[in-house]
Specification:
It comes from Microbacterium phycohabitans. This protein has 14 helices and 15 strands. A hairpin with a 2-residue loop joins strand 11 and strand 12. The protein is globular.
């Protein structure tokens, strides 16, 4: 907790950051509630809120309280006109959105692709959409930067995409390209790590400080681990690549790829093939799986769930998380029978590690990666002080 007692620009920046982060992550608060949440006194809160208003970062509105004695404390909320551009390139589409500081998605476009996106084309498309949006839905907004969620390992030191194999990217400097194209700061991260951040702050893992997150997308399976409230990066920033682990497969008949890794066996492409779809977003896939009465479709989902359960049990035994969150097509597999998947995981997990374990589908759904990408921008641009 940041408290008073030290003068200087550093402490003031920290206090401004604390107030802004509180209303951004926890939602609008009255000045009185901010006083309680931050430990700062009322006059300091009033002064800080005034400066944040003048900076165009928060807005105040009258309290909804009725029938209370005395004058109600104004409600402080993030200014929704402050936005970050969030970008998620995949093998079949480019997802681009403007995410407000209040968490709302102001505008979003999913641009289908018939050929693999290159880093250069990705930067060009984003720059084009941003230019169009600033003449339209973002005309009254302030863009503070762009965040890119990439399906592959990203070097923490400089944001270079080491390899996104399904996209065909190697040593890709997408951040520098996009910054040159837009003129605004860019932050690049692994898609699963950013999805984990979003679910930890705003979704299914909120309130839990030890989290394992697995994301299933068109490019495979990524993952991330949060330990004690901090994202586990590893020596180079590549931690959490669960999709590259060798799966435990008890029945040889369940194997589809010789010497394959987890993402070869638990696969969105295999699910689409089972329901007879050449392509489709998660919503279309979920509808097709739940509507199908074909025994072959049920057999494929059961096979993938068996393999996934073993992978999750291994993660639970190694990491002892409070919650395992599944996103993308993994959430679709889980939602087919969440209690059944939970039981299958617990059957393979050490009793001590299973005691307080919770299995959950990502609450933010298809916007989780975009919210995470935007959060990386907000954290760097607006919350630099700790």
């Amino acid at each position: 907790m940041v408290t008073e007692g030290t003068r200087g620009d550093g402490m003031r920046r920290a206090n401004l950051s604390l107030v802004l982060r509180t209303v951004h992550r926890d939602g609008p608060r009255s000045r009185a509630a901010l006083t309680e949440a931050t430990g700062l006194n009322r006059s300091t809160i009033a002064d800080l809120v005034g400066e944040l208003q003048r900076s165009g970062l928060v807005v105040e509105r009258a309290s909804d309280a009725q029938g209370r004695v005395g004058r109600p404390s104004p409600i402080v909320a993030p200014d929704p006109r402050v936005v970050a551009i969030a970008v998620n390139p995949e093998v079949d589409a480019l997802d681009v959105a403007a995410v407000g500081l209040d968490g709302a998605i102001v505008v979003r476009e999913r641009i289908e692709q018939r050929t693999l996106l290159t880093p250069e084309r990705t930067a060009a498309i984003v720059a084009e959409r941003l230019a169009a949006w600033t003449e339209g839905p973002l005309a009254e907004h302030r863009v503070v930067g762009s965040g890119v969620a990439v399906p592959g390992p990203v070097r923490a030191s400089d944001g270079v995409v080491r390899e996104a194999p399904h996209l065909g990217w190697t040593e890709a400097r997408i951040g520098a390209m996009l910054q040159d194209a837009t003129g605004a700061p860019v932050h690049v991260g692994n898609d699963a790590a950013l999805g984990a951040l979003a679910e930890y702050l705003f979704g299914a893992a909120r309130g839990s400080h030890d989290v394992v997150y697995l994301n299933g997308g068109a490019s495979g399976i990524g993952g991330a681990v949060i330990v004690g409230g901090a994202l586990l990066g590893g020596a180079g920033g590549y931690a959490g690549e669960f999709g590259q682990n060798r799966p435990g497969i008890v029945d040889p008949g369940d194997r589809r790829a010789d010497d394959g890794v987890l993402e070869d066996e638990v696969s969105r492409a295999l699910l689409l093939e089972a329901v007879g779809l050449e392509a489709g977003d998660d919503r279309a896939l979920a509808h097709a799986l739940t509507a199908s009465e074909d025994p072959a479709v049920r057999a494929e989902t059961d096979r993938q769930r068996r393999i996934l359960a073993t992978a999750l049990a291994n993660a639970a035994n190694v990491m002892n998380p409070a919650v395992i969150v599944l996103g993308g097509f993994l959430a679709i597999l889980a939602d087919l029978d969440l209690p059944g998947l939970d039981a299958a995981v617990r059957a393979q997990t050490m009793p001590a590690c299973a005691e307080d374990l919770r299995l959950a589908a990502a609450e933010l759904g298809e916007k989780r990666l975009l919210v995470g990408a935007a959060e990386a921008v907000f954290e760097a641009a607006l919350f630099p002080a700790r």
